Structure formats: structure tokens, C-alpha cells
Amino acid sequence: MNRPSRPSEFELVGRVTIGQYLPTNSQVHQLDPRAKLLMVLLLAIGVVASDSLLGLAILLGGVALCLVSARIPLGYTLDGLRPALPFLLLLALLQILVIPARGPCLRTVWEWAFFSVTDRSLLAGAVLALRFVVMALGISLVSFSTSTTELTHGIEHLLRPMQTFGLPAHEAALVVNITIRFLPILAAEAERLLKAQASRGADFGPGRFGLLTRARKLLPLLVPLFLISLRRADQLVEAMEARCYLGGKGRTNLIQLRAHPRDHLAVLATSMVVALVVYLGSIDVEGLILSSILPCPT
Amino acid sequence: MNNPTRKVVVAGVMGAISVFLGASHWGFVPWLAGAALTIMHVPVIIGAILEGPWVGVAIGAIFGAFSLLQGAIAPTGPADVWFTNPLVSILPRLLIGPIAWLAYRALRQISEVAALAISGVAGSLTNTVLVLGALGLLRFLPWGVIGTIAVTNGLPEAVLAAVLTVAVVAAWKRIAIGQKGSTV
Lengths: 298, 184
Fold this sequence. Notes:
The structure holds two protein chains of two kinds. By secondary structure, chain A is mainly alpha-helical. Chain A has helices at residues 27-30, 33-49, 53-69, 74-81, 85-97, 119-145, 148-159, 169-199, 211-242, 261-282, 285-293; strands spanning 108-112, 115-118. Chain A folds into two domains: 18-168 and 259-298, no CATH class; 169-201 and 209-247, no CATH class. In chain A, helix 2 runs antiparallel to helix 6. Chain A is globular, with a radius of gyration of 25 Å. Chain B is mainly alpha-helical. Chain B has one domain: Orthogonal Bundle (Arp2/3 complex 21 kDa subunit ARPC3). In chain B, helix 5 runs antiparallel to helix 6. Chain B is globular, with a radius of gyration of 16 Å. Chains A and B meet through helix 5, helix 6, helix 8 and helix 9 of A and helix 1, helix 2, helix 3 and helix 7 of B.
């Protein structure tokens, strides 16, 4: 069937896609899902904890290296970033112009009316943009190279040590699994509801409505959607209990994850890089470099 | 209702609704100057009311993780970019459920419908206050702007959340609201 390039307002199933998996069977794809999850977690720590531009550039280089070795087409990766670019520029500008910069010595680069741009605020703007790019690429890398089944297994295994603190690892992974499996069902149900209401004369077309009108139009869709889902949940509970589901205790897995030396190596390398990046942030490496070139204005 | 299987399933299903509302844009109601109101946190509130605080935490975690992913993979607005920071996207969302549940538990004895409405408001305001608070603490936005957003977005969101929570939970638990409906 020929699909129009712009999905119609009634088409919801095709629009709900998360975790686009690209099976290129590369080195990165063959890594243990636990290792990949740990690596992206470490990456997140590095991105959040460090505000060093140099450090973030190192992380960006690392992620780019992984993307290349995962044989993911460049266009594919950049496609994901493109919609964010205008917002990102806007935010970086906002950061540079509006948010007051802090630091031991601020060198004013440009001044006009209320605005004054300092070296620190330029750095902060660049850091904001780079933070987003690194995190976005890191997350896309994992979603491109890991199937959802691998991902839920990875989550379950990673959460296992937390069981001693009372966190139900198996249940948490099952929740994620149900969410992922339920999405297409939900999209199909929503599509059916939308068509049913439209056939009764409801108008969901584009246009600007007031809040109340809009909310009134959403209620006949959302309330049945919730109720259908709760009913489906009931059926699922019954089906699971009929098959003697008793929770995670004493359960064995069909797929056994085995960590190879390369997985340990990958996690170790990532943690070393992240430690370096956090260290660079804590000694304020940009400040040191700047003060060695330019004297501090007094 | 203390069935562990049901807790797991309801958490998964409500998590799916939250993700669906975000991915299909049903969960966004256009509002002043492009700043959309969101109702993606309503499944968290409803899940917490029906199955308890821990289910609320689980759905909140899914909601948060999805807004992080959406911010990173397919941002729909300028604000989405901030949500790549887990301190903004995940941490505040974990508390929506427990607070909505507490409000519901505290008021259930007085009036079921009022408890549902206030629980919706409390859960929604938790989301607003904690997310905006995180944005302020991380110096993404000046506090003045945050105050404005809290009023222009937070309050209508709370009203929407209350209406939806009452409508869904009352229909599910067959609680009569007013004198409407068939008397046959």
C-alpha cells in the first residue's frame, strides 16, 4: 500500500515508534546489553557532572567513534539531531545573553545596552549545546544497536543486585516490557476511538481552540482510552495468573546473558574517560587555559 | 487490591499510555504562545490512586525516561532539550505518584470525588514545582520566568489533571457523580 508522506490525523500506529533498531551486527551490536546500558549511564553522569567544554568534546569524540564502529549511517544519526537544532541555537543564545555568568574573573567580550557577553557565558552556551548533542547521540547509539528484548533483559540483570535493597528487578523489567509491547495495541485502540468519534461527527482537525473546547474534545477520547487499557490490564492479569505466573522468585531465563572480556573492557574504558572528564570539570580546565593566555581584568 | 501481578501489569499499561500520549501528541494541549500544556503525568496519578505509591513511582520512572528519550531523539519544542538531563526529566517524576496517592488516601474518607480531584491537582503540581525547581536550580531559566510558567502552565495543567483523574477513576470504580446518568 502506498502511504502518503505525511501521515493523516487518523494514523497513529505508524507514528508511535521508539527504539529504531538497526541490525548491522557490528562490534557495538554484539556488546552485552548490560555493558551498553552501563556505558550510557556513565555517559549521562559525565555529561551532567562536568561543565568542561574540553571534557564534553572528549565524550563527543568517544560517542562518534562508537557510532562509526557500529556502522550506523551518518545521515541516520544526524536526522535525529536536525529537528533539535533551531531550539538548541535559541537556548544557547538565551544562555549567552540572558543568564548571568559566574566565575572568578569575567572578561567582557561584547557589550550592548542590557546585554553583556563574557567569556564565561560563551563557554556556558557552548557547553549547553554540546551537552545535548552528546546525550542525544549516546542514547540514539544504544537504541540503534540494541533490540528491545535485549534491552529489557539488560535492565533486569542490571537491577538484580538492587534486589537486596528490596527493589523488585524482575517486576521492574516486566513493567518496561509490558509498556513496550502495549504501545502498538494502544495506538490501534486510539485509532479506532478517533475514527469512531469522528464518524459520530466529532471534529479533530487542526485549528486553534480555547483550552476548554480543546479539553472537552479530548475527554471523549482519553476517558475510553484509559478504560479500555484498564480492562485490557485486567485480562492480562487473568491470563498471567491462569498460566501460574508467580513473580520473579525462582524464575529462570531462556536467554542467558554472558559477559565477555570485551564487555568488561568497554565499561572500564568508559568509566576511565568519564572520570577524566569529571576531573577536567572540577579543576575548571577552561578557566586555567584562559588565564594562562589572557590576564584577568581587575 | 493487593495483587502483585496486577500492580506490575497496571504499571506497565499506564506507562504505555503516558508514552503514547507523548509520542502521538495527544498529551499536549496547545496553549499560550506555543507552550503546550501536558497531561502525560495523568497516567502516573491514576496508576498511583488505583494501585498504590510504588506503582506510581514505576509509572513516573517510565514517564521520565520517555521524556528524556524524547528530548534526546525527537524534540518537539524548545523545552524538550532541557529534559535530556535526568535531574529534570526523571527525578521529579518519581514523586508524582506517591504524593497523589497520599492526597487520595488522606481525603478518601471525606469524599471520594473530592479526594480524586485534589489528588489530581496535587500530583500535577508536584510535577510542575519539581520540574521547574530543577530547571531553576540548574540555572537553565531565571526564577522570574519560572514563576510565570508555574502560573500560566502549572495551574491549567492541574485543572486538566483533576478533571481527567475524576472522569477516569470514577468511571472505572463506578462512582456516581451527581445525579446524571440512567435511572432506569
